[in-house]
Amino acid sequence: MHPFQDAGRPVDERAEDPFSRMTPEEKAALGVAFGRARPEGRLPFELAHSMAAVGAARPDVPNGTEAPVVPYGHGLTL
Q: How far apart are CA 23 and CA 19, in angstroms?
């Protein structure tokens, strides 16, 4: 049998959808990249400026580092 023939079925019936194996996150990123979705969201934690700042923060206080690079709630609202 010729490699491009499969029991008489057309190629488009045998071809795999390239998006079928993508994760929801990858599909969402493509939606934003192609303008089908708006980028929006807020960061649910803060990013400290150094490991020393993380070490100096109290472990029982969420988002308690001093002068974070990216604060809690940073993000896009469109």
A: 9
Listed in sequence order, the residues at least 6 apart from 15 whose beta carbon sits closer than 8 Å to its beta carbon are: none
Q: How many domains, in total, are found in the chain?
A: 1
pLDDT per residue as tens digits for the range 9-60: 666 666 677 777 889 999 988 998 999 988 888 889 999 999 999 899 988 8
Is residue 4 in a domain? no
Asked if residue 29 belongs to a domain, the reply is yes
The residues, any chain, with a CB within 8 Å of residue 57's CB and separated by 6 or more, are 48, 64, 65, 66
